[in-house]
Amino acid sequence: QVQLVESGGGLVQPGGSLRLSCVVSGFRLDYFAVGWFRQAPGKEREGVACATRVDSKYYIDSVKGRFVISRDNAKNTVYLQMNGLKPEDTAVYYCKLGPYWGQGTQVTVSS
Fold it and tell me: Positive or negative, the Cα torsion across 64, 67, 72, 76?
C-alpha cells in the first residue's frame, strides 16, 4: 500500500519560512517524478514545483527564487523549502508521486 504523509505546515508571518516534508512508504521514491501542489480556498489545485526522476526541477513563476523542491531517495522523502512566504501562498499543500496523493498540510501566511 502506497502512502504519502506530509508534515511541516503551520502559521507563519509574511517573509517567514517553512519546510514541508512528504514521507513515502510502499513505493520507491526514485521510480517517479514528484511534485508539490496547493489549493487555496475557492481556487483550483495548482502545481507548485516538480522534480523529475533525474532531478530536473520546475517551478511556477510565482514561487521561483523562493521555493526549493528536493528529494532524498535514501529516506524516501520529498521536501519543499519555502522562503519569503507571502499571504497568497496560503493554501493546503499536497505532495504527489505518480498517481498517488498525500492528505495535505495547511500553510497559513498571516501577520
Answer: negative
Contacts of 4 (CB under 8 A, 6+ apart): 22, 23, 24, 95, 96, 97, 100, 101, 102, 103
Spatial distance between the Cα atoms of 43 and 3, rounded to a whole number of angstroms: 25
Which of 17, 19, 34, 18 shows the shortest CA–CA distance to 76?
34
DSSP 3-state of 88: helix
Interatomic CA distance for residues 99 and 101, integer angstroms: 7
Averaged pLDDT, groups of 10, the chain, 111 residues long: 94 98 91 94 96 93 97 93 98 94 97 95
